[in-house]
Amino acid sequence: KIEQLELLASVEAVTKDGTELTLLANISSTKEMETVLKYGAAGVGLFRTEFVYMDRTSFPSEDEQFEVYKQVAQQMGDKPTVIRTLDIGGDKQLDYFPMSEEDNPVLGYRAIRISLDRRELFKTQLSAILRASAFGNVKIMYPMISSIEEVRQANDILREAKLELEARGEPFRSDIPVGIMIEIPAAVMIADLLAEECDFFSIGTNDLVQYVLAVDRMNEQIAHMYHPFHPAVLRMLKMIVEAAQKAGIPVSVCGEMAADERSIPLWLEFGVHDLSMSIQSLLRVKHRVLHTTAADAKYVAQRCMNMRTNAETEEFLSHFNESNM
Ligand code: PEP
Ligand code: MG
Fold first, then answer.
1. Kind plus residue range of the DSSP H or E element containing 134
2. Which residue positions form the known binding site for phosphoenolpyruvate?
3. Does 204 sit in the ligand 1 pocket, CB within 6 Å?
4. DSSP element (H, E) containing 193
5. CA-CA-CA-CA torsion for 266, 85, 188, 232, nearest 10 degrees?
6. Among 27, 142, 183, residue to substitute to test ligand 1 (most atoms within 8 Å of Cβ)
7. Where is Mg(2+) annotated to bind (predicted)?
8. Partner of 276 for a Cys bridge, out of 87, 131, 254, 325, CB 3.0 to 4.6 A?
9. Residue 142 dihedral angles phi and psi, to the nearest 5°
């Protein structure tokens, strides 16, 4: 089957009736770039930079990070490379950066919270990303944003990094786009305000589902309660997209929900055309896109937005998916 799917690598992701989608790759390591290129991803929609910090004994220097980011940016060329700033904490730890035991690490010291607390570490990473922007179509993305202040504080540090690079005579793209992950319910509820503070949104459904439903995404015992198609999640997704559209900024999805081909009609009807996913899922999703129409999308979304439970929605989507291929 994968051999057959591989034939789709050079095919555009266009619906049966002509709507173009942009299917991008999530990467957690440069090792994946070979497959990203082979499968013809339209870019890197989420570069999880944690791996640059892992399996080491100290924080990576600006130069070390720059080399990694530059490599990916160059390989992607004109295609976008969205580099997400460090998202440690929660389940992800670094040996050389001891963090105190927390009762609720997923609600704790993590991601942008660490970056805003350890400004020098953050500035080092931002400087490395800025320098890589001279070699490709690089964008910056902040994880776990819950307020406008966080975006502004992060942008203040970005501004400092730019001034320092200028003084050092390092080239970079001064108008580099800056986006945020929407993955905390508070961010959904103030999406209209956040949209005024950034250049794009990317919806992190992995964490969003966890926080909306109060279901730990790592806890096996309650995995059966982790429901991406829960009506509360679908309503939030719609809110985010509407806020982005109203503000005129792009919105993409980079959580695993984008890799579930059953969700394709929903994104199409919402008006989300950029989907980023693990590279192993990309061609399977593209296959689904090729077999979908705007009429399908409208029908499916209208039905789903009026359903009352995750079970009902999932059953409907599975059935629709199987009978329309
Ligand atoms: C997400 O939360 O949906 C996401 C894409 O980020 P991560 O899985 O790295 O938390
Ligand atoms: Mg996340």
1. none
2. 48, 84, 206-207, 217
3. yes
4. helix 191-194
5. 50
6. 183
7. 183, 207
8. 254
9. -95, 130
pTM here?
Answer: 0.97
Backbone angles phi and psi of 79, in degrees to 5: -70, 150
| Sign of CA pseudo-dihedral 134, 139, 142, 145 | positive
Identify the active-site residue in 161, 251, 254, 300. Answer: 254
Decide if 86 contacts 53 (C-beta within 8 A).
yes
Question: For residue 316, which amino acid is it?
Answer: F
Q: What is the DSSP string of 147-168?
A: SHHHHHHHHHHHHHHHHHHHHH
Q: pLDDT 10s per residue in the chain (325 long)?
A: 788 899 999 999 999 999 999 999 999 999 999 999 999 999 999 999 999 999 899 999 999 999 999 999 999 999 999 999 999 988 788 999 989 999 999 999 999 999 999 999 999 999 999 999 999 999 999 999 999 999 999 999 999 999 999 999 999 999 999 999 999 999 999 999 999 999 999 999 999 999 999 999 999 999 999 999 999 999 999 999 999 999 999 999 999 999 999 999 999 999 999 999 999 999 999 999 999 999 999 999 999 999 999 999 999 999 999 998 7
* Structure-token pair, residue 218: 């790592």
How far is residue 24's CA from residue 92's CA, in Å, rounded to a whole number? 24
CA-based torsion, 134, 31, 7, 21: positive or negative? negative
CB 89 within 8 A of CB 131: no
What is this model's ipTM? 0.99
Q: Which ligand is nearest to the CA of 202?
A: 1
How many angstroms does the Cα of residue 168 sit away from the middle of ligand 2? 34
What Å distances lie between residue 273 and 46, 111, 176, 228, CA to CA?
A: 15, 27, 21, 19
